[in-house]
Amino acid sequence: MTLTTRFAPSPTGYLHVGNVRTALHNWLFARKHGGRFLLRLDDTDTERSRAEYADAIRADLTWLGLVPDAEYRQSDRLARYDEQFETLVAAERVYPCFETAEDLDVRRKIQLSRGLPPVYDRAALKLTAEEIAAKQAAGERPHWRFRLNTAAHVYWQDLIRGDSHIDPASLSDPVVRRADGSYLYMLPSVIDDIDMGVTHVVRGEDHVTNSGVQIQMFEALGAKPPAFAHEALITGTEGALSKRLGSAGMAHFREAGIEPVAIAALLARLGTSDAVEPVTSLDPLVEHFDFAHFGRSAARFDEAELRQLNARILHQLDYDDVADRLPQGMDAAAWAVLRPNLETVADAADWWQVIEGPVEPLAGEEDYLALAADTLESLPWEPGVWSALTAALKASTGRKGKDLFLPLRRALTGRDHGPEMAGLVLLIGRDGALERLRARTN
Ligand code: GLU
Known about the structure:
Structural class: alpha/beta
CATH topology of the largest domain: Rossmann fold
Helix content: 40-55%
Radius of gyration: 32 Å
Number of domains: 4
Number of strands: 13
CATH architecture of the largest domain: 3-Layer(aba) Sandwich
Bound molecules: glutamic acid
Strand content: 5-15%
Strand order of the largest sheet: 1-2-3
CATH class of the largest domain: Alpha Beta
Shape: elongated
């Protein structure tokens, strides 16, 4: 059987850092083992699911390079869910319940006031066939629960958490279908995982209890449960994943000039024993991916760390990787000069503007700059012209360090800091450089 993973978002919002991390790990694991990676849109909640969110999810995955091998939508599969649902009803693993939300609420309060866990008391299991028929004849519509087998704990070997188990007796039989006929996520997810040949379910540890329940659903449907990997959640710098990061879609990072590979590089390693490295493609991330490297404690997502990583990655990207996002006219030579000083690709436009001019000259040092212009004019215009110019000025004026260099930089760029002048001056060109050095003396 081909190793198969799936990423199963509900298209009720944009992907945030936590979802993307789950998608990435599913993708990396599948790629590493020559398997398949599926995108499944869990869109049974027709009121909250929207086509625009589904489109945004696809677009974000494409941007990140996590292209699925196939896509499914739960809304296309309702007939199949009905079929399997009926199988479970016939096997008495799913049963009808008629309590109203208010009834259940009152019962829960009573249990809590007695210090008992608020677990559903299975009163509906005691209804006779006649009682059920009478309620339905009277127009009552049931909701349906999956009957857990409470005789033993459910055990599994989690790929991250190791020996895992839950005690079904501590849980309410989960509602799998509402009175209006719609399905809750748990059962359709199991039916899909069986039909789509999913071999590994990789998701956040907030699903651990669901996994225990779902393992019983797999078995009730005569299927072998997949392997599970539950990841520790990530938190923001202020503790819980801050609201902004919890809800900020990939658009936020795109607009901030973050490279998709920087997001992948950070999220592939966050919470693992592997160091975060400035990689320029997903390949090395695939190669080193291993659930055995994941820790059990929550990992901290820090946007400042992402920005730093992004800059380090940018400093290694080739012109061809970024050419379509650079200002018109900016060539490979300019990219090579500017690259070490950029934090985002968009910053290149700012420096390109400096190169093309005009720049606002800064006041001061007019005599020194006039001498620099005359010296430059006498030198051959060639790649080493900057060191020839500064060596000549050092000899003729006795200046060194900041006194030697800073006035030149300020005149040529209008700024105190920036890329290496040796490269920059060549991009500015002979005429431009002379003009700038003389700007305040003309
Ligand atoms: N749609 C579910 C969620 O987003 C899927 C969980 C899963 O099975 O991976 O929570």
